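Notes continue from the previous slide.

Worked example: a multi-chain complex. Inputs as given:
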Amino acid sequence: DTGVSQNPRHKITKRGQNVTFRCDPISEHNRLYWYRQTLGQGPEFLTYFQNEAQLEKSRLLSDRFSAERPKGSFSTLEIQRTEQGDSAMYLCASSSPRGSRTYEQYFGPGTRLTVT
Amino acid sequence: AQTVTQSQPEMSVQEAETVTLSCTYDTSESDYYLFWYKQPPSRQMILVIRQEAYKQQNATENRFSVNFQKAAKSFSLKISDSQLGDAAMYFCAYSPHRDDKIIFGKGTRLHILP
């Protein structure tokens, strides 16, 4: 098992463009979380999935943000009409292996977005 | 609203010494989960230690231990025998349920002096 992976690792985009990030969780993990981390701050929760169902969205997640997890495997986070304030590290985490009572969240390396 | 506060933006400790990082939190729940995460420079976040609020005994993991004071809503991390590899950002974190979103503090950057 190679852990949580995220692609791309870095993304530079111009204001107003759309971007999409991908997260591949640890296989057999039911839950998948997205967080955003700005410089000098702790991660902030954005949304999470139980299998393919999106169970909660933060008020931080404006209408320009959308996340999916088709088939309960990988997940994508799309930001439409990017703004400079969207510049941040976007972190993905997964947890809850099927049949296990453990609940530790394992984090990916993140995707660093820079909006110019 | 649930919040996590880390009042020490940076700390330094001599290698092999002991250091304590502070954390307070606010919640109206009686059952919840507390964590300390470590984020090394340019590396991903990893869990250091966790504490279930219903357990009175303080959690320990090798050189890492916590002082959990439920009434005071305090959750400090003690690192014994500090090593150069301990240098990182440390985040105190709270979760209202066993497998749920995590609310993080702003972090404490720990420097290890050789």
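Summary box: The two ends of chain B are 41 Å apart (CA to CA). The mean pLDDT of chain B is 95.
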